[in-house]
Amino acid sequence: MHNILEVRNLSVSYGGIEAIKNISFDVEEGKIVTLIGSNGAGKSSTLRSIAGIVRAKSGEVLFEGENILGLSPDQIVKRGITLVPEGRRVFPNLTVAENLRIGAYLRRDDLSADLEYIYNLFPRLKERSWQHAGTLSGGEQQMLAVGRALMAKPKLIMMDEPSLGLAPLVVQGIFDIIHTINSHGITVLLIEQNANMALQAADRAFVMQTGEIILSGTGAELLENEEVKEAYLGKKKK
Questions:
Q1: pLDDT tens profile 48-80
Q2: Helix (DSSP H) and strand (DSSP E) numbers for the chain
Q3: Taking Cα atoms as reference points, which of 119, 126, 114 lies closest to residue 82?
Q4: Residues 42 and 234: beta-carbon distance below 8 Å
Q5: Where does the pLDDT of residue 108 fall: very low under 50, low under 70, confident under 90, or very high at 90 and above?
Q6: What span, in angstroms and rounded, lies between the C-alpha atoms of 81 and 44?
């Protein structure tokens, strides 16, 4: 497998404050990769800069060998990257079906097979397809946000805190879906405050702190790392 995404010396600033400081990492095609770290570590800024929502100060973001830094968000979606934003950001006054179709706004082909795929992944969305998204539970809205991102037929799906504010049972369901999506050939780049779940799911993981990557390894390696255990998994050093 080759690297589908290569981030090289990426820096992002907000009004003179450096949110990301010259970070580099790779995402191998077909894998689940996670960024973990505390609030303000720069995780969301990293995803948003890859998606073209935040303008980077310097660096490169290579997707399938092409530098996409500076492209507009719709051009990046067209190349095969989608983002499931933090807080779901569904359109509350539109139906489930309308929200899903918005995810395919750049496509001009028939959507019926993909809608059926989403409804098979999330049977609850099929039951509520004509219900306004604002009336769904938090877990159902997260399913809808993931489904909407999948409607663009991405090669790489990025997820920003998919378990935020959800009950533990629902969180397990979301991670089951992440594994299912990945098993269908879609690469996943995940940021998640539930470090334990994220590291269990991840093939590769990076720890961010104040805009820098301070640790990397497989998910299993970082689960056993004493610094990670103490800082992110709530376990004291022996």
A1: 999 999 999 999 999 999 999 999 999 999 999
A2: 10, 10
A3: 114
A4: no
A5: confident
A6: 15
